Structure formats: structure tokens, C-alpha cells
Amino acid sequence: MEIINSTLRNAGHAVHCTWVHELADLGDALTRGVPQLIFLCLADAEEISAALAARSRFASNVPTILVRDALGEQELEYAADLGLQDVVTLQSRRRLQSVATRELHAARLDNALSGTLAAARQYREQMKAFMTGSADAIAHVQEGIVVDVNPAWAVLFGHEGAGALLGQPLMDLFDAGSHAALRGALVAAAQGRWTDHSLSTVAVLPGGEHLPLEIAFERFDFEGEPAVRLTVASQKRDFETLTKQLEEALQRDPATGLLNRSTFLRLAAARAAQPLKGGLRAVAYLEPDRIGELDREHGPLGLEEIMERIAATVRGQLQPGDLVSRISAHGVAMLIERGNARDLDAWLGMVLQRVAAAPVALGGKSAAVTASAGATPCLAQGELLLRPLEEAVEAQRAASHAGGNRLTRRDAASAARPELGEADRNWASQIKSALMANRFRLVHQPIASLLGEDRAMFDLVVRMLDEAGQEVLPSEFLAAAERTDLLKNIDRWVVGAAMSFCAARNPQKIFVRLSRDSIHDQTLGGWLQQQLKASGVAPGKVVIELSEELVAAHTRDARTLQGLLAALGIELAIEHFGSIDADHAALLGRVPANYVKIDGSLMQGLANDHPLQERVKALVSMARAHQVRTVAERVEDANTMAVLWQLGVEFVQGYFVNSPEQVTLG
Q1: What is the pTM of this model?
Q2: What's the confidence (pLDDT) of residue 172?
Q3: Which helix (H) or strand (E) holds 13?
Q4: 2-112 against 420-662: fold identical
Q5: How many CB atoms lie within 10 A of CB 78?
Q6: Phi/psi at 181 (nearest 5 deg)?
Q7: 135-232: which CATH architecture?
Q8: Residues 199-238: pLDDT tens digits?
Q9: Which pLDDT does position 40 carry in this prediction?
Q10: Residues 535-592 pLDDT 10s
Q11: Residues in CB range of 38: below 8 A, 6 or more apart
Q12: pLDDT of residue 413
């Protein structure tokens, strides 16, 4: 460090070198400061890869130079392959000066260009805001510190002027539950990777009041230094807005803020009657436990306050599109859509946990309150709301009678359905007919990079059309296909269609699922080789997915399949990672994977659940230790994505990124 420092100073650069002693501290060092140049004095290839991963995440635009004892063509090629700017030795100080001067100059030109473009864009936006009389609340933040606010921001946060806010850590203005998402959004925005998503946060005002806010983020240059601009849009109280707010108020219960019963029944019935495009739709019903005891001990007014607290807890966990109502004096009904049953259970379980974790203060006493919930999935093709609602109420009562503070989920009613054997025979007939008539379809869901990589990556999922041309979700027919030994046939159709998609669209990666039947198939390797040859698809574009549950239950077969895929040049992904109680590190050691998809149930409430964040962080660290890339499943909101930035996840997929779209091939 001393040699580099003195060499650059002798060349006229006003440098201040920071020595990062431990590789594990590199990420923190890059986030604390704003480096202009990085020298990697490392010899070990794995350490270099780890350092570059940290740079890619926290300082992707900073030029990086490798330091070697000697310099030759081999070292230059090695650096070029890694995407490094150059290689230097400490013996040739004149060359070190020349390379550093060149890279600093190029980086400053890039920063100046980015700043000019950003300034021009911000100027246009400021002029537009001025012309329309905008009163948006705006703050500028550098390295987590508030450096500038406008009067509207000061008023919004309960201050007469900006003086009390300047120089304060931004996090001091917000509830602890918002901190993880805020940090992630700030890092992403500072790197220019945050788009137009707004973040849902809770501000803490000087008197202790909590104020929900939607905040927009953008990269900004403040006094020549990179910063992040935070904007809270003003609420214009024009006649149209007031009319809309009045209409919404009339549709809600005044005490809890939830939809009133008539509005909920109307909206929920209309949605339940519509076919589901993906995932799972369910009706849930929640009541506090021991209602009679609570009534006797605290009276009707106390019970009403308990309902208001429960409603506030539920409101704080809602996702876009959820419909929730105080449907009875003591009951909350919900129509919610999630990725699968695990996501539903995780979300409802989190709501119950938060209800139990927050005692209610009543008349100077603290009342411990728990609740129970019941849930029933709706039919994917649409149905009347009444039946699943009645079943959800019955399930809630069963949960409460079983001791309370628990969830009971029931499958859709089977009383009016054929026996399982007959149903399977019907499904088998439909599946065979659909295979023969080519009535299967692929839908693709984009996988987005959080590292700023421009990658066309898609997760491919199968759908079946019935004889009337209506779409049938995998959740409806795959279980029957497994029981009737038809999964292998469906797998092969999906793989073949995926190869055609890959040949036509030329994506960088496609993710294709295989079932248990396929990993036992001794002919799969030869068949895959034929498909690759026939389609002309590069093997490296294909990623085969296996569920973690399947890999754990059939580890030897999964390991054999992984070896077969690796020999063909095909990569392996383990989906629903973290969904089962298993030694995940040992599993990755026994079945080497290229990707893990962290289960979507762990995304439910992630943004304000610190223990859950620690669990996901541990999975990410485990994957990184095995050099496995990470994808977060079923990401549904900006706050979750912002937290995933913080936790080091590399890719995300879900309805927030893009909903599944049907594959059409010309």
C-alpha cells in the first residue's frame, strides 16, 4: 500500500489509499467510502473471484487493477478474462503511474458524463415540477446521512425548518421495520440500478407518531458528489381526489380501516369467479382466541380495541391485490393470492405471530391476545365465494378449539367430487388427450438480475388446455399425473418445447423443471443429447431445476443426474431452497448445483421481519460458500426486492418482476 500510495502521489495524484486487511471486510469498505480505483493484491484465484463479486455488488463502476509479481501475456489474458482493467507490478512504477492515470481519467469522464445526463434529466423534472406547482417532499442523502431537504420534507417530518434534519442519519427518521428495505434501496439507487419502484415505509415523527409513506429513489449528484434523492409525492386535494377518497372511505369499516362487508363480498365474489392465471387463490378467516373470556374481562369496548389492533396488524402485512374485510363483529375475512400453499401458510403464520407478539394495553393493563385462522383454496377455474368462505370459518373454529394461535388450512371441498381413483382416471384421460392433441402450452417468467447484468433469463412453466380451450394450472393436473405415471411424458414435452423456445428466442438461460419420475429415467441422458443436437441449442443455455425436497429424498439419483447434466454442459438449479428442514450446506456438498432458488415462502413478510432476513442471509452465504448463484422466488413487492439487495441475492423472479407470459413461437 505504501508503494502504491507514494507512486501515485509522485505522479501528482492526491490519493488516500485504504488497505482492506481481510477479504470479508471488502464489501463494507466499498459501501463506507466512494473509491476511485481498486488494486487487487491477491494471488489466489478463489480470493480474486470473491473480491470481484464484492466489487460487482457494491462498486461495479470502479476500475480494478490486478497486482502481480511479474507481468506477461498470460497475466494480461487472465485479467482480461476477469473483466479487469489491467495488470501492474510494483517493480515498474512508471507503468503503474501510467495505468492508474489512464483509468482515473476514464472513470472521471464516465462519472462526468453520467452526472451531466443525470443533471439534465433532473433539471427537466424540476422545471416540470415547478410549472405544475409541485409540493413534493424531497431529501438528498449521502452515505446514509441527510445532506439537504426542501421545506415540504421538513414539514412532513414535523419540523419548522431543515436545520434539525441536516446531518442526521436517515434511519433515525424511520421505524426499525423499514430500515432493511431503505438500506437496500439506497445502495441500489446509488449504483443507478433502482428503477421507478416506490418503497412503502413508516416514518417516526418527533412526537412518536408513525406515518406511512411511499418514497421514490433516484441517483443524484449533490455538490459534485454522488447522492440519492428521496421523494414523497404530495397529495393534491383537488375535487377529483377528494371525491375518490370519500368513495373509498364509504367502502371501509371506520374503526379498522378494512373493507366493509358488502364491499368485500362484492369485490371478492367477482374475483373468485374469474379463472386464476397462476399460483393459488384462497379465502381465509381470522378471529381472536378466547373471545368469551376477553369480553368478560375487558368488556365490549376492550374487545373492540383488540379488533382494531388485529386489523392494524393485518393491514401492515397486506400485499398488492389482497382483499380484507371486517366481515363480522369479531372476524376478519381475506381473499388472497400467493404462489403456492407454502406461501399462504407462511404469510398467515406471520400474521398470527405478529398478533401474539403485540400485547394490547387496555385500561392500564396489558392483555395478551392470540388469534387463529382458517383457510381454504378456491378452484383455479373460478367458483362462488360462499363455499370456500364457509369452509374457512369452519377451519378457523377447529384451529381455535384445538388450542388457538394456529392455522388450519383445508383443501377445496371434496364432497361433491368423484372418488380419488375416478378423478385420477379422468385426469389421466384428459392429459393423454392433451398430449396427443398438442394442447400443452409453455409460459415464461423473466428472471431479473440485481447486479445490473443484462441477462435474458426465463423460468418456463407448463399449462394445459382443456377441450374447451380453457387454461388448466399445473396445481390441478400434475398431482394426478404423478399418481398415474404420466409425469415423465409431460417432462419430455416441456423440455422439447423449451428447446424450441431457446432456439427461436436465443435467451441466455432457460430454467426447466423435471419431476421425480425423470430423475429415475435411465434413458434421459441420451434423449437430452438428441434434443440438444436436433435443436442446435447450446447446452450452457439450459438449466434443469429440481426441488430441494426431491433432491433431499433422492440424493443419490439427483447426484447421478447432476453428473450426467454436467457431462452434457447443462447446469443444475435447486428450487424451493430453504423450504424443508434439512442440512442445506451438506445437500449442496453432495449435489453440486449452479443455482439455488430461495423458496418464495421466505419472501412473505421479509421486508420487516429481521429473523427471516437472517435466515435468508444464511442461505445466501451458504450458497456463496459453494460458489452457487442465488435466485429469490416469488418476489411480489419493491420492499422485498430492496431487502434482497442488502442480503446479497443475485436474481429475483415473481409477479413484481413480471407475471408469466405465454410462449408464442413463430
Answers
A1: 0.74
A2: 94
A3: none
A4: no
A5: 16
A6: -65, -40
A7: 2-Layer Sandwich (3.30)
A8: 999 999 998 898 989 999 999 877 778 899 999 987 655 5
A9: 93
A10: 999 999 999 999 999 999 999 999 999 999 999 999 999 999 999 888 999 999 999 9
A11: 55, 59, 62, 63, 64, 65
A12: 42
User: Which CATH fold would you assign to the domain 2-112?
Assistant: Rossmann fold (3.40.50)
Quote the CA–CA distance of 306 and 329 in Å, as a whole number.
11
Comparison of pLDDT for 496 and 107, the residue scoring more: 496
Domain locations in the chain as residue ranges: 2-112, 135-232, 261-409, 420-662
- Beta bridge partners of residue 217, listed in sequence order: 230
Contacts of 460 (CB under 8 A, 6+ apart): 442, 443, 444, 494, 497, 498, 501, 510, 511, 512, 513, 663
State the angle between helix axes of 524-535 and 555-568 in degrees (0 to 180), rounded to the nearest 10.
Answer: 30
86-88, strands of its sheet edge to edge:
38-40, 64-67, 86-88
5-9: long-range contacts, CB 8 A cutoff, minimum separation 24: 7/93, 7/96, 7/97, 8/96, 8/97, 8/100
In the CATH scheme, what is the homologous superfamily, with its name and number, of domain 261-409? Reverse transcriptase/Diguanylate cyclase domain (3.30.70.270)
Instruction: Say if CB 485 and CB 549 are below 8 A apart.
Output: no
Identify each DSSP E strand in 89-209 by its residue range: 137-142, 145-149, 198-204
Cell of residue 10, nine digits: 509522485
* Domain covering 420-662, topology: TIM Barrel (3.20.20)
**Residue matched to cell numbers 446509488:** 190
* Cα 13–chain centre separation: 42
Mean pLDDT rounded to a whole number for the chain: 87
